Amino acid sequence: MRLDYVTIFPDFFAPLALSLPGKAAAKGLVAFGVHDLRSFTHDRHRTVDDTPYGGGAGMVMKPEPWGEAFDALLPADTHADADAGRPTVVFTTPSGEPFDQALAAELATREHLVFACGRYEGIDQRVIDHARERAEVREISLGDYVLNGGEVAALAITEAVVRLLPGFMGNAESLVEESHSAETGGLLEYPVYTKPPTWRGREVPEVLRSGDHGKVARWRHEQAVRRTAERRPDLLAPSVLDDGTPIVRAVPADAAELLVLQRACWVQEALANDSLDIPALHESLDDVRAWLTEWDTWVVRRAGRLVAAVRGRLEGEDTWDIGRIMVAPDLQGSGLGRVLLEHIQQVAPASVTSYVLFTGAGSVRNQRMYRKAGFRLRPNLPAPAGAVVLTKTVHRPDTRRTNL
Ligand code: JD8
């Protein structure tokens, strides 16, 4: 990948030679070019700004130097073959599209990025309009706060993009477990610890020293979910049903209604399986409260009534145990169960490679729904009495977006 920067403060990009980008350049993964906008002026004062048409405070960056900069860096005409690495010009601006990990992953698919770093009150709008005629243009904001220029944003975007380039991160694995990465379903990172086991009277959580990878994976997922719920509930944005009804994380206060819904649904299971010997049927309110702290549980409310639920948790390091898919009897057959089954698969942690669930041997309707969803009966796997086990292998879509 080639990255060019046009700026009136070229020294701002000295850090490119350091640390991360520096290593990438050494590995031949990237090439950088920093260009002083004033080198594209011709007057004694090397003028790059002038007063704003329409009046107002501050100065605006003149179009001519930018035009000449683009003449030097971009193909002349717009009809340059898109696939042949048509450059992408990134104007960093507070009025741009928000920069996030998905956009970083998208920009990492480009062959040539040209960062146009403005100053003063901004760049004459005709420069952006002109650039669109000869390159892909992205106007990108680093965040909802005001900086004095575009250089800091260009550096931050560079770091987020270059580290995603194939062959850059020593172990690509570590990219998987990161906050905001598509792989972690957008969860924030879990807390991390290293030696010594005790520091200033503080212990490393016992589970991390247990050697039980399954327990560790489940603890880390629970910590990531808890931290995200506390700090970034927006990242836990509920998915919604076709009619806009949200699927939200259960809270302890849902326990009583969950118990009622569970009893109603498992009476039907008892009838379908001609047996009352079904654990869910015998659980108490405290049992429900207890498993709500151990399982990722999601619920659906209609007109305030809790009408459906599902839960999931890690079994070992890479198996997602799905259960308690419940739909109020009066709403069964409406597709709610199918949607919740799809949802609980989507929210499974990145490390998961297979799903497992079980249902009554006599629960033919449930089994049909699971088979249609890609689950397969596994008579060779141990199942609770009177139940059958079904599993499904995880297939992750290739989340990278290209500009083709
Ligand atoms: C480019 C000039 C300063 C902005 C008058 C202050 C990005 N997230 C972000 N915040 N601010 C910028 C940014 C600010 C810039 C320029 C980016 C060029 N300024 C201007 C408008 C108000 N001054 C940014 N990315």
TrEMBL record:
Residues spanning the membrane: none
Keyword Phosphoprotein listed: no
Predominant location: cytoplasm
InterPro entries xref list: Acyl_CoA_acyltransferase, Alpha/beta_knot_MTases, GNAT_dom, tRNA_m1G_MeTrfase_C_sf, tRNA_m1G_MeTrfase_TrmD, tRNA_m1G_MTases_N, tRNA_MeTrfase_TRMD/TRM10
Catalytic activity: guanosine(37) in tRNA + S-adenosyl-L-methionine = N(1)-methylguanosine(37) in tRNA + S-adenosyl-L-homocysteine + H(+)
Top-rank taxon, per record: Bacteria
Keywords: Cytoplasm, Methyltransferase, S-adenosyl-L-methionine, Transferase, tRNA processing
Gene Ontology MF terms in the entry: acyltransferase activity, transferring groups other than amino-acyl groups; tRNA (guanine(37)-N1)-methyltransferase activity
Protein name per its UniProtKB record: tRNA (guanine-N(1)-)-methyltransferase
Organism: Nocardioides faecalis
